[in-house]
Fold these 4 entries.
Entry 1:
Amino acid sequence: IEQEESSYDYVFKLVVVGDSGVGKTNLLGRFVHDAFDFASKSTIGLDLTIKNMEIKGKRVRAQIWDTAGQERYRSITKRYYRGSVGALLVYDITKRESFDNLGRWLNELRINEAHPDSLVMLVGNKSDLDSQRAVTQEEAMAYAEKNGLMFMETSALESINVEKAFESLIHNIF
Ligand code: GTP
């Protein structure tokens, strides 16, 4: 146990939240394994992924909780928001509804005691599907600014901005 503990300097918790089907599991899969799954199954409850990194000379261990977007798991997943210092709040740029629901997710993070200084990175995923776009970048940027969120558009499929989204969130936490 001692050895385990000395293998990193900091450990912290992140959560990935947003409507079902926006690509949360695939963003994590791209970030951690550089993989993408065309036929990924909807997450049941939640999954924990550990990612070890070095930031500013410190060994950092991120515990990243991939949560199910489906409503029926909400009562389970929201318990895991507690104490998280960062969240990736994901919508699908081709699904207007997933953008319209952002307020609900922000509210859930707040009332379920994410850390008070917790940072949120708003992520517009599936940027590869630009021809089916239902949310403009300008609108999302304005929403992020109004709510004090960072913002980035990503594609888990084409591996665009995925590392950047996770890493800028994590760097800003430190
Ligand atoms: P829940 O587990 O139900 O909350 O869904 P999720 O948000 O984890 O979504 P998931 O990662 O399972 O992806 C849903 C579907 O979108 C899958 O068919 C993915 O292959 C697809 N998908 C995910 N990311 C992208 C992307 O960047 N571009 C495109 N074109 N499809 C994507």
Entry 2:
Amino acid sequence: MYIEIQSLIFAIMDTKDYIDFNSQVKMETGLHERDRAGVQDFVLLENYQSEEAFIGNLKKRFQEDLIYTYIGQVLISVNPYKQLPIYTDDHVKAYRNKHFYEMPPHIFAVTDNAFRSLIEENRGQCVLISGESGSGKTEASKKVLQFIAACSGNQTTVEGVKDKLLKSNPVLEAFGNAKTNRNDNSSRFGKYMDIQFDFKGAPIGGNILNYLLEKSRVVAQMGGERNFHIFYQLLAGADEALLQELRLERALDTYSYLTDGLNGSVTSINDADSFKQVQQALTVIDFSKEEQREIFGIVASILHLGNVGFTEVEGNAKVNSRDLVVTAARLLGVNASELEAALTHRTIDARGDVVTSPLNQELAIYARDALAKAVYDRLFSWLVQRLNISLQAKETRASRNNVMGILDIYGFEIFQKNSFEQFCINFCNEKLQQLFIELTLKSEQDEYRREGIEWIPVEYFDNKVICNLIEEKHKGIISILDEECLRPGEPTDKTFLEKLTQKLAQHHHYVCHEKAPAHIKKIMLRDEFRLVHYAGEVTYSVNGFLDKNNDLLFRDLKETLSKAGNGIVRSCFPEKELRSLKRPETAITQFRASLNNLMDILMCKEPSYIRCIKPNDLQTANVFNDELVLHQVKYLGLMENLRVRRAGFAYRRAYELFLERYKSLSKSTWPNYKGPGGPKAGVQQLVKDLGWDEEKYRVGETKLFIRWPRTLFDTEDAYQE
Ligand code: ATP
Ligand code: MG
């Protein structure tokens, strides 16, 4: 009888309403694409322990341009490498204020969910985006920002803030991104951006933290890769007057720092247009004309410096192109003779004993490159600081919790050759995995506790042991590296490796050449060590570890720069740094401190996870490489994530929603449940009438927990009939 009434309702709806209602209903359970394009939520996958089934589902959906899939609340996103019409204003509207499972998976759903939790429950949020290079992290972070900007407040002041937040992207990308062999627009730094909201949910400010810029790129690039975008943008986009002022030629091959890798333009990039956008963005973010002039002056000075060559006379380096030093010096606002001397000499101040000695050619080149790298790196950090001043909330009405963070940071890296940089990046990923364990597994358990549901905790690999191996005080790799860097005598990469092996050979996650099993020994060199990361094994070459960790810029150069007429340069090399008697912190120690700070920031927020996957190595649409995807699924820990999610209760639904949807399946609940105890009692009655086995579900405080998706399928099928 109740089914008949339902048909009657449909009969009196007009056809369009019926279709909308029907598709809405189908969307709600995530079942409407079950046959056509896999499952929308992996917890619904029957064969959930099979990697093949997992990849199969992703692939089936990818082929239908359905790039998003959930594992519970975690969003998996496969880079489509083509513009899909799924980010329009209509999509923003459709996803705004909807329950998470009401709509097909989408990054807007995740953002909306987080945003509502922020506004309605006053809980600080963070969106954590991870994945390998080219998987779509930065694009994802822009979609999050787009959604927030589109659906939050529209007063003029707020529009100003949004504009600045959005415009910070082209600036940071110009200076921090580059064409690599994996991604034409690869971020070469990590980024965490906080957006602050007022109590009504309007954005009022923001703050950006930057991590570890790959500054070695300034002076050298691999084949097929480019330097940071800004160099090419400046040369292609600056007008004649600016070029003249900076003494620049348009031809890229004039500049030695640009000729290492790919010496030319990239089809997907229009450097001249981008330069205009950067200039415009800088203006919107209130950079003065003078500041802009100084910024481009610094960029140009680096190009000139790169062309400064040296000859060696009796072991002493001599600059052989003084005019270039003069130009660079003018742009930096330093004395040319002083710069020349600083490039070819080194002063050591050993407890008041000041000794200046000339550099040979090799060391002079080293000093020149160190200068270029340091100036660029500090310019980048200065830009971020300066952006932050512009983004600072004018009003202080924002509560501390009204913050949404977006983290777009390098994913786990395993290359043919892995060095100090990969070590830092992979360490960062270990820390993020720790956070994932803390926040998701913990929150899962918290929910069961809150709802009063008994459950047996599931086994998972806790990577704390690897974090400790790397960062434990006095014993970890970082401590050993720092000790070696600071040790008097002649520490080298080789002595560092010896120390590592001496102290860590017994550790289960450290593999040295001597003790490696035969098949590993075959692929390892003597100057390498291997770490068993949570995401896989990585062999690191120790070459350059000490040098990169010391990150030495000779004192003479620092001193010259601290007096620079270019205000930005001067503030980047403060005099107090010279006067400080403390040894500057090593690169890895600074990195560890900034990571720990990040962990503190993230730990007190509610996380949303976006796991990005790259479907192929060709940066092309419609190609899905199973093997490549499987590799990523493994090291993103997605199978384990799913296992944990499935071990508990795959589906949970608030009583009101469940009852509203399925009340027609029982006489006691149709058209409304009238008994005592409200929706909770109604649902209990309903599932009893449906004959559900007790094992299949649990009754929580506010939600019904369903163990197997099959149960829901069957109920849904009954409903559809
Ligand atoms: P990296 O770690 O190198 O910075 P990434 O994960 O940030 O990589 P993105 O720069 O976001 O990768 O994406 C690489 C390219 O893939 C983009 O330039 C764009 O062409 C394409 N892409 C990524 N996501 C999408 C999307 N949702 N829709 C269309 N194209 C996309
Ligand atoms: Mg990126």
Entry 3:
Amino acid sequence: ETQQEAIRAAAEAVADRLEAEKEYLTELDSAIGDADHGSNLARGFRAAADAVKDDTESTPQELVKKMGVTLISKVGGASGPLYGGSIMSASQTLDDGVTAETSVAFAEAYLEKVKDRGDAQLGAKTMVDALTPAVHTYKKSIEVDDLPPLTALAKSTAAAERGVEFTVPIRAQKGRASYLGWRSVGHQDPGATSTWFIMQELLSVAD
Ligand code: ADP
Ligand code: MG
Ligand code: MG
């Protein structure tokens, strides 16, 4: 399997999963937002998968960039530029394709972009709360513990899940959920949840 084929397979798996979780993500967003996160992401990631489906010319970097560009135009809302813009920007780290080293650089660049664009710190009850422990765990697993990328991704995905759980008892400080103030407490963040679902699919495709 080439890297391009792996990327297309991952894109399909993510699109299928978000389609399957559409109602659930929308239910989470209806509690603390405007009930569109599921449809935003299902629509966007389906379009992103379709955009790379028959593309056998592009490099791995170009495929990932194309998905980011498609997400920006198809997702909308707060999560469109966060997901799409950050994927697009982080694709710059994939000059040499996808290796253990470039995947760490991609993950770090992605997290930095999300924080940059959204201006959300850890604990603001956003996707940053799933991403931060996931990216730190991935980097440490590869660079310090010298684990194989698949093992690192499994640990990272488990860290994302704990990040999702961490969003439940805290108060939202960014995005629509922040308008609710203390009433956002007790609800799980939709964007942290979708981030974790996407990581689960990347893990299952890599496995
Ligand atoms: P919208 O809120 O515009 O309807 P979505 O429902 O698609 O967009 O996405 C909501 C999710 O976006 C939230 O659950 C949260 O994780 C994420 N989000 C919102 N604002 C920010 C921000 N400033 N920084 C990081 N993530 C954010
Ligand atoms: Mg919403
Ligand atoms: Mg919206």
Entry 4:
Amino acid sequence: TDSSSNLYKVVLIGDNGVGKSALASIFAGAADSMGSDCELFGGEVCERTVTVDGESATITLLDTWDPQDESKWTQDQCMHTGDAYLIVYSITDRASFEKASQLNIQLRRDRQSEDVPIILVGNKCDLMRCRQVSVSEGRAGAVVFDCKFIETSAAMQHNVWDTFHGIVRQLRLRRDSE
Ligand code: GDP
Ligand code: MG
């Protein structure tokens, strides 16, 4: 296959405080010895080659989303530049789940003709006692928006790499169906 088709831009979007940067820093290798594999550009963009199912893929992960951006310029950029999206909310914050739904709607509308891979990510699943969004609500949301769903904990490093590998698998499914 054409190697350029193994280069993917994945964008993190979601409310403030849901854990986007925490997920990005795990991707960047802050928590392991392979950090040198990753090139950081200003701390918000990280490029890393990963092997998923025996095939390598280079992911550029963007953590540039600013929910408070008033010009909307960065937000529009984010909505149009990604090959795939991780829409993150916190399971401890219902408002962030509602925000994730809005972002899903916006993305599906802005990129109507494209079948952009999206994973709805319910982060902070280690904080079970503060849970405001149930697993079944998260799953139901993903059905509505026709995307995948996963709960993660950046703090416990639970399901974080499954999420990055999952988005690569979805990108390949789409690539192979073209
Ligand atoms: P962002 O605004 O979406 O980039 O969120 P941050 O990554 O800056 O995280 C916001 C706060 O939540 C920080 O204090 C993190 O340490 C904390 N945090 C992020 N992910 C988790 C998680 O999975 N579990 C817990 N308990 N805290 C988390
Ligand atoms: Mg952040």
